[in-house]
Write a structure and sequence with these properties.
alpha/beta; 4 domains; 33% helix; six-stranded parallel beta sheet; 17% strand; six-stranded mixed beta sheet
């Protein structure tokens, strides 16, 4: 007993020391900033709230540029999307050597899924279900970005999305708030580490707060409208998780919430984020977010700027509404000096926490820029991560893995296009250093396999559409020959091969910001190519590129093998070859539901029953909640993903079927690898609250474990469940659990589960 007390005392002592050290740091910061702000004019305080783009800043022109002039005048708090140590050092020099108060600037960039070493798009990365891989990807991104002068990233994007029409689903983590919360925490840890004063950590910015992924009609920037109960249960958890993980900043979303644009929504920015969740960092707008509220229709620039500041916005990205109008609003009593001071303080605190006052040039080490960006080690990790993100959707007759012999016909508009491999939001990527599927296969296989390449089709029949889908240096090199000629060339190649690998789907910029689609099928030009290849009678493997769940019902019925590779990053070509030819066994699991057609959208596994649910096993019943033309089922459910091996699940063993109060429940299954290959399996735990004071989803993800099993090996997987896992926001928005019956489900995806029942009373 004495030893237990001693250990407890030591632990408490450590916490006390840490708390004391934090208090000392906070006190030093407050003293420093208090003294600095006493020296600042109103104009200089407003200058800290201003975040312009890098504009015309290039090396050697910082002195003469308009931005340079504003920096000298103390009218700029930071810049974004400026790249390279040389440029950043030059601009920072203007701030700390030529401005009156020598306040350093913060430099932000959209470092979304890697820097120059690009990892899979976030939606793909989420399909690893591996939090260590996720954290490592953010850690490497932070190392590379910080080595090149960047100290702030507009990531993670944690918006829940259940509508595949929305292009920015590619940039998030899928449809589930529990999984999204785990990823949000992992990303923040990866970027920020445990010490922001280190020169290889960067501040994260959580976006887009809030509800951006629920835009009506899946159309980017569109209106969002939902009940607060749904907000807090289904959409808010990842934002809160990121705040709890210590994220340094948040970004306001473009959409309105309850009729008020998020950028001017005091309930959102102050009442929830700061008062309810205890967030201490600063909030920045999205690009021209303040100015755009004029078009929303809530006032002119002066009015909306004042509303943004009053709501809790601290920094204005690009628009300069705060810089140019707040002085007048202060004179008119529309804002207070205290509000201006508070916003200014939060920006200064962020700079202090980053150690910029101690060393404004801490991120400007030329040696780091030369030695820590796009390294062999980083590329190897990115390659492995990409392979883990791929989802095997179908493998009829075990076509995959392919043999490292014979002849392969590699066909498709995405087969030999390295520029599209990094995917959307890869602003720091060097596309010339990315690896295409063709190049990856050639380098992995050497002379073991003969590869015959043919493009086979353009991305789309419509040249203008293809141009819109090939922006930001990601053109596909259009072939202007007649379509039938291009297809014939591909068919001839297929006829010479033992197997056909068809690299088809979306281009990188068919998903991402402002890339909403009303038709989420594979473009018709590629469908026609695929059908021609199938008619050859050769085995066809569809390597599917996409930044969203696609409606691939036809392909899932016709094509014997489908490997969804998302956009795997700079090492995508190598990773695809690794998986196709069996060096890596795929283990990715979907984090979004794949619909049969766009008419099913939005579709997600955690739906609620209606008062007229469709009977189990039925396709259609009159006067029930269903469609006339398709079943309610998706093509591929949330959590789905095959392996080159097969896994068997035992029935669930529960520690008890009757619990009370804060007791813990353990649920155990035994998982066995019944196949020939070593493989990884994501074991998923779902719970259903059978009867509630308000309606509850048919199931909710509450846990997962990724395990590795050798052929013939079995492992017990144990989940511990507490009342905390049963909590939800009720009608009164109280976060609590309710006594009653619960279904415990464990399985390989959200549909194929074993089930057991418990009764839990308070």
């Amino acid at each position: 007993m004495k030893r237990i007390l001693t250990v407890a005392a030591l632990v408490l002592g450590m916490f006390s020391i840490q708390a004391g050290a934090q208090q000392t740091t906070d006190a030093k910061m407050k003293t420093f900033i208090d003294a600095l702000m006493k020296k600042m004019t109103l104009e200089e305080k407003l200058g800290q709230l201003n975040l312009p783009g890098s504009g015309d800043i290039v090396t050697g022109q910082a002195q003469s540029s308009d931005i340079g002039k504003k920096i000298r005048e103390g009218k700029v708090g930071g810049l974004f999307n400026i790249k390279s140590v040389a440029k950043i050092r030059e601009v920072q020099k203007v701030a700390v050597e030529q401005s009156r108060l020598k306040i350093p600037m913060i430099f932000g960039m959209d470092v979304i899924h890697g820097y120059e070493t690009v990892f899979p798009i976030p939606l793909g990365l989420s399909c690893t279900w591996d939090m260590q891989l996720v954290e490592n990807s953010a850690r490497i991104a932070a190392v590379e970005a910080s080595a090149d002068g960047i100290n702030w990233t507009f990531s993670p994007m944690v918006d829940i999305c259940r509508d595949a029409r929305w292009g920015r689903i590619a940039e998030g983590n899928g449809e589930d708030p529990f999984l999204g919360s785990q990823i949000a925490k992992a990303m923040v840890r990866g970027y920020q580490g445990n010490d922001l004063t280190k020169n290889n950590t960067i501040m994260s910015c959580v976006k887009h707060y809030a509800l951006y992924g629920a835009a009506e009609a899946g159309r980017d920037y569109n209106t969002t409208d939902m009940s607060r109960q749904r907000m807090f249960n289904d959409y808010m958890p990842p934002y809160k998780a990121a705040a709890d993980a210590g994220a340094g900043s948040f970004m306001a979303s473009f959409n309105e919430v309850e009729g008020v644009p998020a950028t001017a929504n005091k309930w959102l920015m102050t009442d929830v984020l700061r008062k309810q969740w205890g967030f201490k960092g600063f909030v920045v707008t999205d690009y021209t977010g303040i100015n755009e509220m004029v078009d929303h229709g809530i006032g002119d620039l002066k009015t909306v700027s004042a509303r943004a500041l009053m709501a809790g916005i601290d920094m204005d990205m690009v628009g300069e509404g705060l810089l140019t109008t707040i002085q007048q609003s202060l004179k008119e009593g529309k804002v207070t000096q205290a509000q201006i001071d508070l916003a200014c303080r939060r920006i200064l605190e962020a700079k202090y926490k980053l150690g910029l006052f101690a060393d404004p040039y801490k991120y400007c080490d030329e040696n780091r820029a030369k030695n820590e960006v796009f390294t062999a080690e980083h590329r190897a990790i990115a390659r492995n991560t990409a392979a883990q993100s791929f989802v095997l959707l179908k493998n009829q007759g075990n076509i995959l893995p392919l043999k490292k012999s014979g002849t392969v016909a590699l066909i498709g508009p995405l087969a030999d296009n390295k520029e599209n491999m990094p995917g959307t939001w890869s602003v720091a990527a060097n596309f010339q250093k990315a690896t295409s599927v063709l190049s990856g296969m050639q380098q992995v296989l050497g002379d073991k396999v003969k590869i015959i390449y043919a493009k086979g089709s353009n991305l789309d029949y419509d040249a203008a559409y293809e141009e819109r889908a090939g922006m930001f240096g990601k053109a596909l090199g259009r072939d202007n020959r007649p379509a039938d000629v291009i297809i014939k060339e591909a068919v001839d190649a297929a006829n010479q091969a033992d197997v056909v690998v068809a690299a088809l789907g979306e281009s990188a910029e068919m998903s991402g910001e402002s890339s909403s689609r009303s038709n989420i099928e594979i473009p018709q030009a590629q469908k026609d190519l695929l059908n021609a290849l199938l008619k050859t009678g050769k085995p066809v493997v569809l390597v599917l590129f996409t930044g969203r769940p696609l409606a691939i019902k036809e392909e899932s019925e016709k094509v014997p093998a489908i490997l969804n590779v998302w956009f795997g990053g700079s090492e995508a070509g190598f990773a695809i070859a690794d998986v196709l030819f069996g060096d890596v066994n795929p283990s990715g699991k979907l984090t979004t539901t794949f619909p049969q057609n766009v008419g099913q959208v939005p579709i997600f596994y955690a739906h609620k029953n209606t008062g007229r649910p469709l009977e189990e096993g039925k396709w259609f019943s009159k006067f029930r909640s269903n469609y006339l033309d398709v079943s309610n089922d998706p093509v591929y459910p949330f959590g789905y993903g095959l392996s080159y091996t097969s896994f068997a699940y035992s029935d669930i063993s529960l520690s008890s079927t009757s619990l009370k109060g804060n007791q813990k429940l353990t649920a155990t299954v035994t998982v066995t690898n019944n196949g020939k290959y070593e493989g990884k399996e994501v074991v998923q735990l779902y719970i259903r609250d059978v009867v509630g004071s308000v309606t509850r989803p048919v199931k909710e993800l509450k846990g997962f474990q990724k395990i590795s099993l050798k052929p013939g090996e079995s492992k017990q997987v144990i989940f511990t469940i507490t009342p905390e896992d049963l909590k939800f926001y009720n009608y009164d928005l109280k976060f609590d659990w309710e006594a009653g019956d619960f279904q415990i489900m464990i399985g390989t995806n959200s549909k194929d589960v074993k089930m057991a029942k418990v009764n839990w009373v308070k």
